[in-house]
Protein: SET domain-containing protein SmydA-8 isoform X3
Organism: Musca domestica
Amino acid sequence: MPLKFNISTPNLAKLIKLHLGPEILKNNNAWEILESPLSGRGIFAVRDIDAGEVILSDIALTTGPTSTSHQHICCVCYKTLEDIDRDIQCKNGCSLPLCELCSNGSSHSTECELFRRWKPKEPTQIIPQLLRFVSIVRCLFLGDTQRKLLLALQANNDKYYANELQKVAQCFANFPSDREMLEYFQYSIAAFNTNAFEGSCDRQQMENRGRVRALFPLASLLNHQCTPNADHYFDSPETLVIIATRPISKGEEIVTSYTKLLWSTLMRKMFLKMTKHFECCCPRCVDPSENGTYLSALFCRQQGCKGIMIPVQTKTLQPDWRCLTCESVFPHSKMARYQDFALNTINNRINACSISDMITFINDMCPRFCPPSNYVLVEAKLNVIWRMSRATTEVFTEEQLKCKDRYRAELLELLEKLGAGECTLKKLITEERL
Ligand SMILES: C[S@@+](CC[C@H](N)C(=O)[O-])C[C@H]1O[C@@H](n2cnc3c(N)ncnc32)[C@H](O)[C@@H]1O
Ligand SMILES: [Zn+2]
Ligand SMILES: [Zn+2]
Ligand SMILES: [Zn+2]
Ligand SMILES: [Zn+2]
């Protein structure tokens, strides 16, 4: 069923240009907004674009902290609050974390007043749901153009989003019951969950800033493909930059990936269905070999066979699996249990062991129960590279350093097979800054 929006595509384009303003638009004109063959509206190149070129920059409608509770950041400037002895919560009693500088400024005063009026039940605690709700509350303070833009976005209907609001309401003694306001919150939650970007707003790790979630009106129109031609980064909490990962021809749709690049097809399919409500039919999704990467592969369950099994059908979340060697077929239920076992076994180690134990586990134990191409093992190798590039005190043996180089080469080969181009992940692997 075609999607219905409350605004025509040309009028939406006009509003976005009004929001960005002439200064930002001056060097920001390689794109146009058109109806997309993928779904609804999309962004298209108006000229040829080179790999690595900035395609567009966008300015947020609203931003807010993420729910990540283990790392407290100021809910206004997103700087990490490191001094555990100092009281990091707003001294006016709204319960939100705030840095010294922002507590003396005026940006926080209106939301602070609202939170205090609603009376947090546990004012001395920093509650993850309330952190996440800050970006939604800020939708109340939008100007006219920005509010129109918010209402023009796609907002998927999901029963879990009602839950999200209910959980927030339960954290306050005096949460509003006004229907119009609740509907506006509900809509804003759906618009955020359909379109928002989350990420570190401190790319160079110079400013000690944490993760942010933000809604960008133009970037919200980017549709998804599993091997996209564009990637994004936050230039500041309010500015998102979209860059080309490979050459893009005039007229081509600009697409990004809503999932992790190295996930298996089934994993991406499940994630997209659950969180974004659609089934991707891109070339990578319909190729059972997954561009020859076999990221889904599991060992054959037939006694004595050492072959690998892959999902046979690409259009279902419950495919049969077939062995490439003996051609046995097993139902998805059996293979899903096996995939969960591999995932849990490897992920439990990732979080619990030292880097050298992890390398030994990957090299000696994993090959017994998990094919090397399986995405869980691939992600474990990525994790090792990441930890080794950050470890400052640990000294590594020649052998361990060689392993890291081998993992890097394997991952780069994988990205090449996927056609991922000059994506952020490739830069991070080659620069070793994940
Ligand atoms: C961030 S929005 C993208 C912009 C959207 N097309 C619009 O008109 O506002 C995300 C939604 O777009 C749709 N979508 C994005 N990529 C898609 C694809 N490859 N196939 C089908 N639907 C897609 C899904 O409905 C998804 O929930
Ligand atoms: Zn601050
Ligand atoms: Zn406050
Ligand atoms: Zn796909
Ligand atoms: Zn077999």
